[in-house]
Amino acid sequence: MEYIVEFGKNYKTNEEFKERMKNFIEMEKYINEVNAPESEYTHEAGHNEYSDWSQESFKKLLGAKQPADHKKNVIDSDLIEGEGRRLQNVKDDLPAKVDWVKAGKVTRVKDQGYCGSCWAFVTTGAMESDHAIKGNKLVSLSDQQLIDCSNEYWGNWGCQGGWQYYGWYYTQYYGLENMRDYPYLGY
C-alpha cells in the first residue's frame, strides 16, 4: 500500500493494522467528499501521516488547556468598535473570492508533529499572511520562539497548548524571529 510506504508506517500487530486501516478508509471517504466536483467545500483535502489516526488519537495532539482565570473576551472593546468603523469603509469592488495560496500570500504547510503547538502555528500563520498581503515579502516566522518564550506568563504552555491571541500579545513586546534563524524543533 502506497500510504504505508510513503509515510513510513509500521504497525506492531494485525489488530493495530486493521484499526488503522479502518481509520484510513474513513479519511478516504471524507477526502473524496471534499474533493468531489459537486462539493460545497472551498478547500481540497488529501492524505498525510495522520490519515490512519482515529479522531480521539488526533485530538490528543491538539490538547489546549484553558486556564482557570481565562477570559473569553480579552480583546479591548475599543479595538473592536474601531475595527467595525473601519470595516464600514471597505470598498464594494473587492473580489468575492481570493485564493491567497495562488497569490503567494501563504507559507508552506507546517507540521507540528507530536507537539500541541497549533496555537503557535495559528499565530505565525496569520502574521505571515497579513504581512505579505500588505505588500511585503512572504516570510516564515518562528513557531518555536513562541513555544519557548510565550510561556505560562503569557498564558501559553508550549507543546501542552495555548492561545493565539496570547501569542500575538507576546509578539507585540518581543517580535518574532525568522523560521530560518529560529527553526522548529517540536518540543
Q: What report would you give on this structure?
A:
The chain is built from 7 helices and no strands. Helix 5 (118-133) packs across helix 6 (143-149) and helix 5 packs across helix 7. The chain is an all-alpha fold. The protein has helices spanning 2-6, 14-35, 55-62, 77-87, 118-133, 143-149, 164-174. The chain folds into 2 domains: 2-61, Helix Hairpins (Orthogonal Bundle), CATH 1.10.287; 77-174, Alpha-Beta Complex (Cathepsin B, Chain A).
The N- and C-terminal alpha carbons lie at a distance of 31 Å
Domain count: 2
Report the CATH superfamily of the largest domain: Cysteine proteinases
The chain-level structural class is: mainly alpha
CATH architecture of the largest domain: Alpha-Beta Complex
- Compressed to H and E, one letter per element, the order equals HHHHHHH
Strand content: under 5%
Cα-based radius of gyration, to the nearest Å: 20 Å
* Main beta sheet strand tally, sense and closure: none
Residues in helix, %: 40-55%
